[in-house]
Amino acid sequence: MFLPDLLKDRRILVTGGGTGLGAAMARRFAGLGATLILCGRRQAVLDETAAAIAAESGRPVTALPCDIRDPDAVEALAERIWQDGPLDVLVNNAAGNFIAQTEHLSARAADAILNTSMHGALYCTLAAGKRWIGARHPGIVLSILSTSTLTGRAFTVPSAMAKSGLLAMTRSLAVEWGPKGVRLVAIAPGPFPTAGAWQQLRPGESPAQKHAPGNPLGRVGEHHELADLAAFLVSPMAGYINGEMVTIDGGLHLRQSGAEDLLAWTDDQWAALRAKRS
C-alpha cells in the first residue's frame, strides 16, 4: 500500500533517531523518499545510523547532535535545519524511562525522565511550530507516547506523566494550530523490544524474546510494524487525521497496564536493583 515516493523530498527530523524505534522509523521514511535529519546526544551513534540508512536508501541523511533537554540547544538545532530549508515533519521520539518504586525516586531522577520525555518534546514542537506558522508552511508533529496514557503505569510514574502531558499537547495544538496548517498526531506503542529500553524496564529479560503470553496476540511488536504506522500518519494519506493517538500493542492495554508483575517483587529485589544503579 506504500508507494515508493510517498514521502518524496519531505524533510523529517527524528529525535532519538540513532537507535531503536527512532532508527527504525527513520529507515522507513528514507525508503519512501524522505530527506532525514537525525538528532540525539551521541554523535558517533548518529553518524553510524545515518551512514547505514543513506547507503540503504540512497537518500541524504544528516546527523546533528542535540540535547533536547536544553531549550537553547533545540533553538540552535532548528536554526541549523532551517538554513537548508523548512522542515516538514517533526517526530518526537527521544525519551527516557526506568522502573523504580516511586516513593524512592529523587527529584533528580524524576527530572531525568521529565526533562527529556516531556520538556524536550515541547521545546522541539515549539521550535518547529513557530517557524511553520510564521512562514505559513504546513507541518506535522508525530509524538511517540505509550499505552500508559490510557492505563497509567505503576513503577514508571514520571514517564506516564510525561507521555500523558504530550497527549494533552497533541490534542490541544491540533485545535490551536490546525487552522494554521499544522497537524499533530501520536502513536502509543506497546511492547516493542529495544536493547536499551528493554533492560531498563524488564531487567533480566532478553530483548530478543518474541513470545508474550500476556498479550492477546501472544507476541511482541516488530519494529517495522510501528515504522509503517508512523509513515502512514505523516503521509498525505492521513491528511485528515488530527489530534488522535493510535494504539499499537496487540490489544495488551485492554488487559492490563503492563507493570502489575512488578507488584510481586520482594524488597530485596528492589534493593538489588537500586544498588546496581548507584
Quick summary of this structure?
With 278 residues, this protein is an alpha/beta fold. It has helices at residues 20-31, 43-57, 71-82, 107-135, 148-151, 157-177, 195-201, 223-233, 267-277; strands at 11-15, 35-40, 61-65, 89-92, 139-144, 182-189, 245-248. The protein has a seven-stranded parallel β-sheet, sandwiched between helices.
Which structural class do the helices and strands define? alpha/beta
Shape: globular
Strand order of the largest sheet: 3-2-1-4-5-6-7
**What is the overall pLDDT average?**
92
User: Roughly how many Å apart are the termini?
Assistant: 49 Å
Key words describing this protein structure:
44% helix; alpha/beta; 7-stranded parallel sheet; Rossmann fold; 278 residues
Please tell me about this protein's structure:
With about 280 residues, this protein is of the alpha/beta class. It has a single domain (about 10-55, about 60-275), classed as NAD(P)-binding Rossmann-like Domain (Rossmann fold, 3-Layer(aba) Sandwich), CATH 3.40.50.720. The protein has nine helices and seven strands. The protein has a seven-stranded parallel β-sheet, with helices on both faces. β4 (about 90), α4 and β5 form a beta-alpha-beta unit. α1 packs parallel to α2 and α4 packs parallel to α6. The longest helix is centred in the middle third of the chain and has 29 residues, at about 105-135. The termini are far apart.
